[in-house]
């Protein structure tokens, strides 16, 4: 997983204030002034982008040990470029952006650790957009299912259970497409026996089929995840 290094985590836990967060609320929204960076102590937070038509694209789900709001660092007059919605009650640490900038500027070792972490996130985002651009809506859904298996998969005798409940609309948000399109593609996969759905959870019976359909390059799990 792409959790931050122990050195950077130690720094973050010495310069924060703790904030409880509730499911359904927003930690921050796109366009708001960016004063803080957040380190997740517990809970889950969805990071998304909304286009001019109001369509939402979910970029990742963050949980304990993740840093969010990081894109605003070292940007004068920064505003949040993405929206952070709380999916599960928890606690976050809020770090003043200017404080973290000063600490990183004065500590080259920590700055390098942060750059490595940022580089990993950029690579993950690039692979997601690659699948969407090269393989369209099908590629977006299939790669999302593969990433969900890597992040939340539980091995079963007949495949992999994605042990997190997701609505078709939530899946559509990951793919940047309409719920109806996802409904149809999931229906096709069920008919082929590739997946089944029970109590809102997807069971992937043929992961290799999904990989073959998008010419999966076998990226390491730290790149091919939903987090």
Automatic annotation (TrEMBL):
Pfam families: cNMP_binding (PF00027), HTH_Crp_2 (PF13545)
CDD domains in alphabetical order: CAP_ED, HTH_CRP
Entry annotated with the keyword Transcription: yes
An example molecular function term from Gene Ontology annotations: DNA-binding transcription factor activity
Domain annotation HTH crp-type: ranges: 135-208
GO cellular component: cytosol
UniProt keyword terms in alphabetical order: Activator, DNA-binding, Transcription, Transcription regulation
Cyclic nucleotide-binding domain sequence ranges: 1-104
Domain of life: Bacteria
PANTHER family listed in its UniProt record: CRP FAMILY TRANSCRIPTIONAL REGULATORY PROTEIN, HTH-TYPE TRANSCRIPTIONAL REGULATOR ARCR
Protein name: Crp/Fnr family transcriptional regulator
Provenance organism: Geobacillus genomosp. 3
């Amino acid at each position: 997983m792409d959790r931050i290094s122990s050195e950077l985590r130690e720094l973050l836990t010495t310069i924060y204030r703790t904030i409880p967060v509730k499911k359904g609320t927003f930690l921050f929204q796109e366009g708001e002034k960016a004063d803080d960076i957040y380190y997740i102590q517990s809970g889950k937070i969805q990071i998304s982008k909304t286009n001019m038509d109001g369509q939402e694209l979910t970029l990742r789900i963050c949980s304990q040990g993740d840093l969010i709001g990081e894109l605003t660092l070292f940007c004068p007059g920064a505003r949040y470029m993405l929206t952070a919605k709380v999916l599960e009650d928890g606690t976050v640490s809020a770090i003043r952006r200017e404080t973290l900038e000063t600490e990183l500027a004065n500590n080259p070792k920590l700055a390098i650790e942060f750059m490595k972490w940022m580089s990993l996130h950029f690579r993950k985002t690039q692979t997601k957009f690659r699948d969407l651009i090269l393989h369209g809506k099908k590629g977006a859904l299939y790669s999302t299912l593969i990433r969900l298996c890597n992040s939340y998969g539980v091995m079963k005798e007949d495949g992999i259970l994605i042990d997190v409940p997701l609505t078709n609309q939530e899946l559509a948000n990951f793919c940047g497409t309409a719920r109806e399109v996802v409904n149809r593609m999931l229906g096709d996969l069920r008919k082929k026996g590739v997946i089944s759905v029970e109590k809102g959870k997807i069971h992937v019976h043929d992961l290799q089929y999904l990989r073959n359909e998008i010419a999966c390059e076998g990226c390491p799990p730290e790149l091919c995840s939903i987090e």
